[in-house]
Amino acid sequence: MIEAKNLYFKYDEEFVLKGINIKIKEGCFTAIIGANGSGKTTLAKHFNSLLTPTKGNVLVDGIDTRKDEFDSRKKVGFVFQNFEDQLIHSIVEEDVAFGLENLEWSNNIIKKTVEQTLDKLKIKNLAKRNVNMLSLGQKQMVALAGVLAMNPMYIVFDEPTTMLDAKNKNNIMGVIRDLNIKNKITIILVTNVLDDLKYADRVIILKDGSVLYDGKKYKLNKRIMDKAGLNDK
Is the whole-model pTM more than 0.90? Predict the structure, then answer.
């Protein structure tokens, strides 16, 4: 479980997260939504210690991110909105192996893990390809493969459909759904695309750095969405 306890965070002197108290249980599919500037990406970055609280705590399976960034980060993968920034090596299989090499795994285990991960995402045919020659959708899948190879219990996706065309949007959301259903990975989806909510079990809405709504998606109504500054068009 990921738990935020009275979480406050500020950039310079301005608090952008204010008293966040949430629990994300294993196996669920949680969407975090909110208008631009609501704090949703800032909150998500706390889940794998990219940021740590100014006040309060974030616990990942009981590990306090302020005290142990390394171990908490191993449990939570993060696929950035600008996923191209996550691609380090020019060859796909080398890029997917990068994180495993940093953990000093043996070459045989790394090779097997990379092959299994690419196969799981149905991109084994890209293994020898140059990353720079891939489409945006393919690059995103390679970035995800690098995260998935680390065998995280939780994966955060930061606005994964923003840069993609309709076909690739449907593809990545289908992959994310399958990771949750078939692989039992807890998914945390940061989005402002209301159509993406159909995949989620639970919705957290942020407004001005605070939780406006936390509950089942079917209980959302126009009053809540209007208050959040979100319009379902």
Answer: yes
- CATH number of the structural domain spanning residue 61: 3.40.50.300
Q: Are strands 210-216 and 63-64 parallel, antiparallel or unpaired?
A: unpaired
Residue 214 in 3-state DSSP? Answer: strand
Is 164 exposed, middle or buried, given 0-12, 13-18 or 19+ CB atoms closer than 10 A?
A: middle
Tally of domains within the chain: 1
Range of the domain at 111: 2-228
Q: What is the pLDDT along the chain (233 residues), one digit of tens a residue?
A: 999 999 999 998 899 999 999 999 999 999 999 999 999 999 999 999 999 999 999 999 999 999 988 888 899 999 999 999 999 999 999 999 999 998 889 999 999 999 999 999 999 999 999 999 999 999 999 999 999 999 999 999 999 998 888 889 999 999 999 999 999 999 999 998 888 898 999 999 999 999 999 999 888 888 999 999 887 54
